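Our preliminary data section would be incomplete without showing what the modeling component actually yields. Below, a chain of 238 amino acids is followed by its predicted structure, encoded as tokens that our downstream tools consume directly.
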Amino acid sequence: LCENLMTSPRLWLIVPAAGIGQRMRAECPKQYLRINNRFILDITLSRLLDTGRFTGCMVPLNASDHWWPESDASNDNRIQTCSGGVERADSVLSALHALKEQVAPDDWVLVHDAARPCVHSADLANLVSTLMDHPVGGLLAAPVADTLKRADFGGLPEVAETVDRSQLWRALTPQMFRYSMLFSALETALQEKQPVTDESSAMEFSGNMPVLVEGRPDNIKITVPADLDLAGFILSRF
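Predicted structure:
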């Protein structure tokens, strides 16, 4: 019992990869597009797992995914897979179910976008050290730098107003929460049909407010074709 009390919570990684990436207009999901002849998913997973911080990793996959066997990650014994869902939240909940027999309730789960290969190891280290003793957890985020306009649509979009950006942040990943709290928050939010666009929004709905940990703004999410070249450039500078 004393040994258990002295043991620090372990870190687990979930990288949802069940999306089909419609905005990329590509022949395969965006996580299987290549940068320097490597799948984006392989780059993302290796950048996180090679830090040595994680006890294990779960990757939810689409039922029709036939690219995974071609990936480097498919031969990595640190990585397990499970069936993903229609939405990101469904995939993350599926991964939490799949990890159930391996994790402790207070272990930390870090969820990271498959299409964010530019995550920096220093940001990961800062996230973990900042939140390790926090009761809720939090996420990497970046303060909004651009002037924001709210549009009024009626034909061509017109500016309705300029939005105060002083308290606005862009949510990034990883997002880091306790296993049991995240499981409960996601399950409840989905049951009550709440919009869940990331893990933080589920935690917010449960009344547990996450911490914003400032991260590098070049931790971009590859969403449209132009992002591929930008990600390649960012990766070349690390």
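The helical segments are 2-6, 40-49, 88-98, 121-131, 179-191, 199-205, 226-236. The two ends are 43 Å apart (CA to CA). Preliminary results of this kind motivate Aim 1 of the renewal.
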